[in-house]
Amino acid sequence: MSEQQNFDVVVIGAGPAGYHAAIRAAQLGLKTACVDAALGKDGKPALGGTCLRVGCIPSKALLDSSRQFWNMGHIFDQHGISFDKPAIDVKKMVARKDGIVKQFTGGIGMLFKANKVAPFYGFAQLQPGNVVKVKQHDGSEVELKGTNVIIAAGSDSIELPFAKFGEHIVDNVGALDFETVPKRLGVIGAGVIGLELGSVWNRLGSEVVVLEGLPNFLAAADAEVAKVAAREFKKQGLDIRLGCKVSNTEVKKDGVHVFYTDDKGEQEIVVDKLLVAVGRRAATKGLLADGTGVKLDARGMIEVDEHNHTGVDGVWAVGDCVRGPMLAHKGFEEGIAVAELIAGLPGHVNLDTIPWVIYTEPEIAWVGKTEEQLKAEGIPYKAGSFPFAAVGRAVAMAEPAGFVKVLAHAETDTVLGMHLVGANVSELVHEGVLTMEFKGSADDLARICHAHPSLSEAVHDAAMAVHKRSIHKAN
């Protein structure tokens, strides 16, 4: 083993939380190292974590490609555009996705170089005394001693014991790399990954059946938003079945047999490919040597306080491996906040204003409390909503589905939540995030001038509707 190397900060993991932490620490003058084990398709190190390699970025590339194809057959004719027999070259589409992934993972490497972050490639394990032992890909080992260690180990797909991943049963990684459009695609789980990847292959012609164990669709979202989204998905041909408890799978010559029970009893479907999207778990297995003092909870997540400190001097944890939503942008903010805390600056992440987005068509987004949560907590509120069908820009785009809802405290008018379903709401939700961060009111939002014609006018009118003064709909 080579001689121990000393750093001010050693980051374990170069995903969204880890690379942000490493770059920000280096910007602040701290000698920083970052360890990551991931390899790309070419067998070379690929920084960026699940998000850049097999998550956020590649899935959006496929979503955009499939959307273009879908629009050719379903929306272009409304614009007077016609052509002969649209076709999809799946291998070319996947190659485009791979190119985007390579561009961005390589970009992190360049950012590390520009900011003087020392990268190490291999599997890291935290030892007592803030020592990180790295087993590098060539079999050699190196020890890194950090005054501070930031654990950003990320998360892995949950594998079901009766549906082991392989050629026909896949997780998000496999569903991004199909070489052809499966005639029949089964999806277990109607969450973000299931809906997004189910949408990709449905748009390209696959018969998609989504089996969801819960009785309610998108239970985490606002009930009205979920209802509108479900209606639009049904129009697109997504077959979403609720209250389905999958019990077993069998791979046979004619496909994957999926056995489940619903309110009608035992059921079976046969599909060519099965995507298992039942959630993710913290990637902490083998991460901690005995005696580090770092604690894991019952779900394998690292226990931290409100500032992401583990309680062990100099050891922090951020991103998917700690409490809070498993979202890349939440990891971004935690990584930056911890780097700034280490440097003696203030750092804090408000988990109550983290936006959620599902990049389906229409998009679904929200921030803050739902009406159901406010009712359950006994918080008095007023609601205002506005449909995209009454927004000139949305109709001109042939994207009239959906609406914006603003929830405000009935007494103080402080915005408590914003819920959206429709075109480009992944961008519009940040009006709600910003308003909530500044403790703004629905009246504040209503009095801000919004450009016309724009989709953002739906936010404006929804805020006005809280006080029954929307101009473009009956109050």
Automatic annotation (TrEMBL):
<feature type="disulfide bond" description="Redox-active">
    <location>
        <begin position="51"/>
        <end position="56"/>
    </location>
</feature>
<feature type="domain" description="FAD/NAD(P)-binding">
    <location>
        <begin position="7"/>
        <end position="335"/>
    </location>
</feature>
<feature type="binding site">
    <location>
        <begin position="326"/>
        <end position="329"/>
    </location>
    <ligand>
        <name>FAD</name>
    </ligand>
</feature>
<keyword id="KW-0560">Oxidoreductase</keyword>
<comment type="similarity">
    <text>Belongs to the class-I pyridine nucleotide-disulfide oxidoreductase family.</text>
</comment>
<dbReference type="InterPro" id="IPR036188">
    <property type="entry name" value="FAD/NAD-bd_sf"/>
</dbReference>
<dbReference type="InterPro" id="IPR001100">
    <property type="entry name" value="Pyr_nuc-diS_OxRdtase"/>
</dbReference>
<keyword id="KW-0274">FAD</keyword>
<keyword id="KW-1015">Disulfide bond</keyword>
<keyword id="KW-0676">Redox-active center</keyword>
<feature type="active site" description="Proton acceptor">
    <location>
        <position position="452"/>
    </location>
</feature>
<dbReference type="InterPro" id="IPR023753">
    <property type="entry name" value="FAD/NAD-binding_dom"/>
</dbReference>
<dbReference type="Pfam" id="PF02852">
    <property type="entry name" value="Pyr_redox_dim"/>
</dbReference>
<feature type="binding site">
    <location>
        <position position="212"/>
    </location>
    <ligand>
        <name>NAD(+)</name>
    </ligand>
</feature>
<protein>
    <recommendedName>
        <fullName>Dihydrolipoyl dehydrogenase</fullName>
        <ecNumber>1.8.1.4</ecNumber>
    </recommendedName>
</protein>
<dbReference type="GO" id="GO:0005737">
    <property type="term" value="C:cytoplasm"/>
</dbReference>
<dbReference type="InterPro" id="IPR050151">
    <property type="entry name" value="Class-I_Pyr_Nuc-Dis_Oxidored"/>
</dbReference>
<feature type="domain" description="Pyridine nucleotide-disulphide oxidoreductase dimerisation">
    <location>
        <begin position="354"/>
        <end position="462"/>
    </location>
</feature>
<dbReference type="InterPro" id="IPR016156">
    <property type="entry name" value="FAD/NAD-linked_Rdtase_dimer_sf"/>
</dbReference>
<feature type="binding site">
    <location>
        <begin position="189"/>
        <end position="196"/>
    </location>
    <ligand>
        <name>NAD(+)</name>
    </ligand>
</feature>
<dbReference type="InterPro" id="IPR004099">
    <property type="entry name" value="Pyr_nucl-diS_OxRdtase_dimer"/>
</dbReference>
<feature type="binding site">
    <location>
        <position position="320"/>
    </location>
    <ligand>
        <name>FAD</name>
    </ligand>
</feature>
<keyword id="KW-0547">Nucleotide-binding</keyword>
<dbReference type="GO" id="GO:0006103">
    <property type="term" value="P:2-oxoglutarate metabolic process"/>
</dbReference>
<feature type="binding site">
    <location>
        <position position="279"/>
    </location>
    <ligand>
        <name>NAD(+)</name>
    </ligand>
</feature>
<keyword id="KW-0520">NAD</keyword>
<dbReference type="Pfam" id="PF07992">
    <property type="entry name" value="Pyr_redox_2"/>
</dbReference>
<dbReference type="GO" id="GO:0004148">
    <property type="term" value="F:dihydrolipoyl dehydrogenase (NADH) activity"/>
</dbReference>
<dbReference type="GO" id="GO:0050660">
    <property type="term" value="F:flavin adenine dinucleotide binding"/>
</dbReference>
<feature type="binding site">
    <location>
        <position position="60"/>
    </location>
    <ligand>
        <name>FAD</name>
    </ligand>
</feature>
<dbReference type="InterPro" id="IPR006258">
    <property type="entry name" value="Lipoamide_DH"/>
</dbReference>
<keyword id="KW-0963">Cytoplasm</keyword>
<dbReference type="InterPro" id="IPR012999">
    <property type="entry name" value="Pyr_OxRdtase_I_AS"/>
</dbReference>
<keyword id="KW-0285">Flavoprotein</keyword>
